[in-house]
Amino acid sequence: MSEPVTAAADAQRLRSLRRAKLGALSLLVLAALVDLAALLAQRHGVGGWAGYVRAGAEAGMVGGLADWFAVTALFRRPLGLPIPHTALVPTRKAALGESLADFVGTHFLAPDVVRDRIARAGVPRRVGAWLSAPEHAQRVTAEAAVGVQAAIGVLRDEDVRSVLGEAVLGRLAGAQLAPPAGRVLGQVVRDGAHHGLVDVAARELRGWLEANEELVVATLAAQAPGWSPRVLDEAIAVRAHRELLRVCRDVEHDRDHRLRGALDSFLARLAEDLRDDPATIERVEATKQALLERPDVRSALGDLLSAGRRLVVDLVGDPGSTLRVQAAEALSGFGRRLLDDEQLAAKVEQWAAGVASYAVGTWRGEVTALITETIERWDADEAGRRIELHVGRDLQFIRVNGTVVGAVAGLAIHAVAQLLL
């Protein structure tokens, strides 16, 4: 909140507080005037009713004054007198800050409280209902695009090349690539994650062979020795082309094909060598260093990053770009899935609860410390003034209630006394 807005809000609170104080004081003055009028009437012998009025008015004055003292003692010393246990907020603001921080940490920032609140709030449903509306998904995409543009747009090509040279390439030069690459490759082979790529490669190679039969046959025939008859060369080339197609089809559809097994064995050995074989690791590192030291490689990487930066800026900046449109459609579709898919909604709710619980469990101390430190930094009188501005108006109703309740109680006590005497 900006400073002018805060000052205007404080000025409005101050006016409301003054009006409330004036109202409570006016009621107290009214009780005093009623008491004085009843006293004069009693002296002139107008009747017994004056005693009832005096009793109610005096009790109302006592109740109003007592509550005035209690409310005032919270923020300052009544009439400036050094009465013990007054000006509680200024003199005990540090203890109040610690109590407030402890209360917030215990009752608002406890992991169990946050989990229960998220479960009862139905976060996935609300998010899904909001995101499923296309205009909301487009709004999220637009806001994200602004952030991406701001983050990437400030970088110049020189900055990108500097970051590439000092950070990326520097880290690559100092880090061994072979062992982590071997661990990743080994996990890929164990999980069979490369089988899909083999399927694609076999399918694409088969399609290329089918589409370029004449080229393949001519290329194979051209490799035959000069003394071989041309008819025989072409026949062998056609047969070789057919065999290549058959092998591609077999590899594509047979997960247990021996070529797949050979490839798995080769990749497994390569992963092991990358992890543990010093000679292989040394060769990889030497190749990496040689590439990184080449000026043309550095220049090409810099050009690639610069082009990528400009492309991203252009794509996110165009509301009609494929990236923005597909991102908005994906968000809207995700919102609809949250509404329709119970399992997905449950997973998202569990994830949100876990993240929130981790956040409050990790940062609760920092949040409560912020409350304590902020209150400790306040000036004592300023702390009393700030708190009074926010709650003082409501506290004035205590004074009003004290005056009214005191008057009723005094009247009742006087009436009971008159009945008993």
**Count, helices:** 18
Oligomer: single chain
The proportion of strand residues reads under 5%
Q: How many separate domains make up the residues?
A: 2
Cα(first) to Cα(last) distance is 65 Å
Kindly name the structural category: mainly alpha
The total beta strand count reads: 0
Approximate shape: elongated
Radius of gyration: 42 Å
Major beta sheet summary: none
Helix content bin: over 70%
Q: What pattern of helices and strands is seen along the backbone?
A: HHHHHHHHHHHHHHHHHH
- The low-confidence runs, each spanning 5 or more residues with pLDDT under 50, are none
> On the 0-100 scale, what is the average pLDDT?
83
Question: What can you see in these coordinates?
Answer:
- It is built from 18 helices and no strands.
- The chain has 421 residues and is mainly α.
- It has two domains: 9-86 and 378-420, no CATH class; 137-338, no CATH class.
- The two termini are 65 Å apart.
- 15% of the residues are buried.
Q: How does the SSE layout of this entry go?
A:
Blueprint: H1 3-43, H2 49-75, H3 88-91, H4 93-107, H5 111-121, H6 123-131, H7 134-153, H8 157-174, H9 178-191, H10 195-211, H11 213-222, H12 230-253, H13 258-276, H14 278-293, H15 295-317, H16 322-340, H17 342-377, H18 380-420
Helix pairs in contact: 1-2, 1-18, 2-18, 4-17, 5-17, 6-16, 7-15, 7-16, 8-15, 9-13, 10-12, 11-12, 13-14, 16-17
